[in-house]
Amino acid sequence: MNSTGRPTAPTSVSAAAIETISGSRGLLQHEDLLFEIGTPETTGVDLPKPKGLKSRLGGVARKVDTGLAGLSEPQAVRHYMRLSQKNYAIDLGLFPLGSCTMKHNPRLNEKMARLPGFGDIHPLQPQATVQGALQLIDELATWLKTLTNMPSVAMSPKAGAHGELCGLLAIRQALIARGEGDVRKRMLVPESAHGTNPATAAQCGFTVDEIKANKRGRVDMADLKAKLEKSEDVAGIMLTNPNTCGLFETDIREIADLIHKAGGYFYCDGANFNAIVGRVRPGDLGVDAMHINLHKTFSTPHGGGGPGSGPTVFSDALAPYVPVPFVTKDDDGIYRLVEQVDGEASESFGRMVAFHGQMGMFVRALAYILSHGADGLKQAAEDAVLNANYIQARLKHVMSPAFDGYCMHEALFSDAFTADGIETIDIAKALIDEGYHPMTMYFPLVVHGAMLIEPTETESKAELDRFCDALESIARRAAQGDDTLKGAPYLAPMRRLDETRAARKPVLKWTAEDTSKVAAE
User: Fold this and answer.
1) pTM of the predicted model, to two decimals?
2) Are the C-beta atoms of residues 218 and 247 closer than 8 Å to each other?
3) FRET partner for 252 with CA separation of 20 to 30 A, picked from 12, 170, 214, 500?
4) Where in the chain are the domains?
């Protein structure tokens, strides 16, 4: 009590300094491994051993215990719920990963994908019983062809890298049809490309020839022209536009013309189509093949190892070589799948997958497209670019933009503003303490200490300001050489790990503590 008789305010204590007996922190519950919660001697269900039944497993019946910990239903539910509370998600806040486009998935799309007519069908059903599904695939394909101004699309690729593979397999087939399959083996790839680009080219039997970037973060045209002086072995180019630096390749038409003049094909990585949809049609730029990540542009779920989708559109030059199966509509209005490499698909490079793509992703993407309309899709792209430029404008006085001028859908910064000893990873880890997943770090490789931020169009100005306030504060500390950044995060469930050691010597098996040694001590 003070002299006035009122209670004295308690002394302020740092949240990081508070330790609890339970290990929990407020409403964030502490959680051990499953093996530490349960025991192998117990199970969640206790059933008597059946009498008078003979095992039908023969000699493959288990002879030893599984060693798995037994849990009751409440224990199992709480375990996974507590783990989910330690994970970041788009439903919690802004997800600033650059190049990945982590944006909100409208719940309307989820509801549509779960309709019995779509959610319960089977790929082996007779085609006469899934006419509605085939019509939906055909309608989505029509939208993708219209938005890209490309005459053909393969719907079966399962993801972006799979779509790349589809595009390059079509290019290889076209070269074989021209009698140049054994001659044109060189694929040009900018040094700022996604890592899957050179990997896909190598997978298809091409050699990768890297093109340098200029000081503007775009393709160095002098280097490209030099590599095309000897053009008889050029198969094509794999180029992302907008590129991985978040910039539009302003020489795109000249690049396409040069590649075509050299006898090659233009593969455009469509990972960033979400920045230009409704504004620019890749077909108008001279593109021969381009995959489209449905999660990036049309808001289907992303990540988690679940079903993805990467439809690939083709120009007239490559349309004959698209993979089977594909949907076609007969004169009588009946939809059918073309599944054999003959007749109308006689020039196809073959089949990539057993079935025809990911139905759930198709439903979600078409629901997104129809709910936005053509004008809404255009606005979404414009808002994505606006949000990225807002972040760049908010932070450029305390951080170092990698390139001059406006960006497209993502803002890229270097670590030039940091004091000696402070690295990009320190800024990223400090952002965790502010309640955000870190941005993409050290990518693209053409920028030292890169920090790539993509806010997407689904974030409000208020949320962007909240994020920028947090990152601005961290950037100021980094510029001042604040050593406390080296210990971040302080408030996360786990502290900073030795990531190199974790990668080289991962602990892949849980081993029970030897209690006998403890007792002996």
Assistant:
1) 0.89
2) yes
3) 170
4) 108-367, 378-504
